């Protein structure tokens, strides 16, 4: 999507009362989301597990398209891009980011998930 359309849609979403955004995207938009959010959730799983999830998605896609996967988008190309991104993640998704999130979290709710067992408990706590 063209950058100007992305920015307009992104900014419109941030003006609504409730929203959930996943992912990184352009750095300025990422920091804009961090500032606007009332709840921050950082999923900090071991990299081998992340590689497994990407590979598992690819293998399952041989029989069924991943839920929410964009029409006309190649799962193989997406998988290769995910592997490439994962190789670079440690440059950004690191202890310095955790420290920054803690600083930004003043007045916000911050959750750092470090295990695949944590999200279930997190969901239950926040749905009650």
Question: What would you say this structure looks like, in words?
Answer:
Helix content is 56%, strand content 8%. The chain has helices at residues 3-14, 27-36, 47-61, 75-89, 95-104, 118-127, and strands spanning 39-43, 109-113. A two-stranded parallel sheet has the order 1-2. α3 (47-61) packs antiparallel against α4 (75-89). The longest helix has 15 residues, at 47-61. Mean pLDDT is 84; it is low at 124-128.
- Rg is 16 Å
Q: Looking across the biggest beta sheet, what order are the strands in?
A: 1-2
Q: Compute the number of strand runs.
A: 2
Largest sheet: 2 strands, parallel
Topology order in helix (H) and strand (E) letters: HHEHHHEH
Low-confidence stretches: 124-128
Q: What is the CA-CA span between the terminal residues? A: 37 Å
Q: Work out the helicity level.
A: 55-70%
